[in-house]
Design goal:
Largest sheet: 9 strands, antiparallel
Low-confidence stretches: 1-21
Radius of gyration: 21 Å
Structural class: alpha+beta
CATH class: Mainly Beta
Strand content: 15-25%
Shape: globular
Number of helices: 9
Bound molecules: protoporphyrin IX containing FE
Number of strands: 9
Number of domains: 1
CATH topology: Catalase HpII,  Chain A, domain 1
Order of helices and strands: HHHEEEEHHHEEEHEEHH
Mean pLDDT: 93
Distance between the termini: 64 Å
Length: 348
């Protein structure tokens, strides 16, 4: 009897790797930490809104939202024909380019840059859309929900350094995270249409594995440079799209070595040597004018979240679980405060 049980156990274990590839490990303190984060961010958005319109608490400044086409590539290997990439087809998409800061500031200030893609007409996704939310660096600066509480507290107190050096004990220093924060601040971007962006956090890729994704500008690099304008990133996007189109290769990286590719810690990069990013779609952005007051207002009212997704691309890991409650609440609150309806777009 005991032998049978051991054999059954071993058989189950041998079936584990594929299933374990997307297994999540939820710490006991995560629910409480998430509630605290939502509360702190909501308070901050409500307080800021007293000075004017309610804005996103992160990525407040949009360079603009452009109309794009997201073409799923032909002749993908069977392994990659999953979710959005199952069929060769073209999705209309809105893409919002942004600065990472919660305040609208001069583009010359060192900051992360965001690229958030919203595919429309997605059957099987509750929202009818599939969002791919990215930043121009491969890793995030916070490991988990509990640490994010400390991070948010330090930011709210106007003393972000406290997150990296919470006390005098060197064992408590967060030097790895400090390195990532400095790398993010030091990134130089002159034109958001010429950059590379990463999901940082993992997502399901069908039933048996998971992915991170990335978009890399293709085509010749433009010659636009940083100028004295506080909005030079928008200016350079405008000049780029006045002269010609922009394009990106959209790529996925599969979780080939689970023990070296953690789900629960987005401060750790999945090595491209262990699993390279593979192109699965081409994004084209035709020449266009995107910064009319009407389109900028529409852009402000969009809501992106990793949780606008097909079940095959469900977000994974603690930071993504926190984002579920945060993005939903903050989007709802800012729309309510501004008196704007909250709707997912279905076409251009
Ligand atoms: C616990 C961690 C995080 C928190 C609390 C957080 C919080 C937020 C909030 C409050 C917004 C504004 C949402 C809205 O009002 O619609 C936002 C937007 C955004 N976040 Fe995060 N975020 C987190 C992690 C990340 C990560 C890991 C990425 C990496 C890709 C990321 C990228 C972005 C981008 C690009 C936007 C702008 C989306 C848009 O254009 O509307 N965030 N975040």
């Amino acid at each position: 009897m005991l032998n049978k049980a051991i054999h059954l156990g071993l058989a189950l274990l041998s079936a584990l790797p594929a299933w374990a590839a997307c297994n999540e490990d939820v710490p006991a303190n995560e629910v409480g930490a998430t509630e605290r984060i939502v509360q702190m961010i909501e308070e901050s958005v409500r307080a800021e809104a007293k000075k004017g319109a309610a804005r996103r608490d992160a990525h407040a400044k949009a360079h603009g939202c452009v109309k794009a086409q997201f073409h799923v590539l032909d002749k993908l290997p069977e392994e990659l024909k999953v979710g959005i990439f199952r069929e060769v087809r073209t999705y209309p998409a809105w893409i919002r380019y942004s600065n990472g800061s919660g305040t609208v500031q001069d583009d010359s200030v060192g900051d992360a840059r965001g690229m958030a893609i919203k595919l429309m007409g997605v059957k099987g996704s509750e929202s009818g859309t599939q969002d791919f939310v990215m930043i121009n660096h491969p890793v995030f600066i916070v490991r988990n929900a509990a640490d994010y509480v400390e991070f948010q507290k330090a930011v709210s107190e106007g003393n972000p350094i406290k997150f990296f050096f919470p006390g005098l004990n060197p064992f408590d220093f967060r030097l790895h995270e400090l390195g990532i924060a400095l790398a993010l601040r030091g990134l130089k971007v002159a034109n958001p249409l010429d950059s590379r962006y990463w999901s940082m956090t993992p997502y399901l890729f069908g039933d048996t594995t998971s992915m991170k994704f990335s978009a890399r500008a293709c085509g010749p690099t433009s010659s636009f440079i940083e100028t004295d304008s506080p909005d030079f990133l928008r200016d350079n996007m405008r000049n780029h799209l006045a002269q010609g189109e922009a394009c990106f290769d959209f790529m996925v990286q599969l979780r080939k070595r689970p023990q070296l590719m953690p789900i629960e810690d987005p401060t750790l990069e999945w090595s491209e040597k262990d699993s390279p990013f593979i192109p699965v779609a081409r994004i084209t952005i035709s020449p266009q004018a995107f910064d009319s007051p009407k389109q900028m207002a529409f852009c402000e009212n969009l809501s992106f979240t990793p949780w606008h997704a097909l079940p095959e691309h469900r977000p994974l890991g603690g930071i993504n679980r926190v984002r579920k409650a945060v993005y939903e609440t903050i989007s709802r609150v800012r729309h309510e405060l501004n008196g704007n309806p909250r709707r997912e777009p279905t076409s251009f």
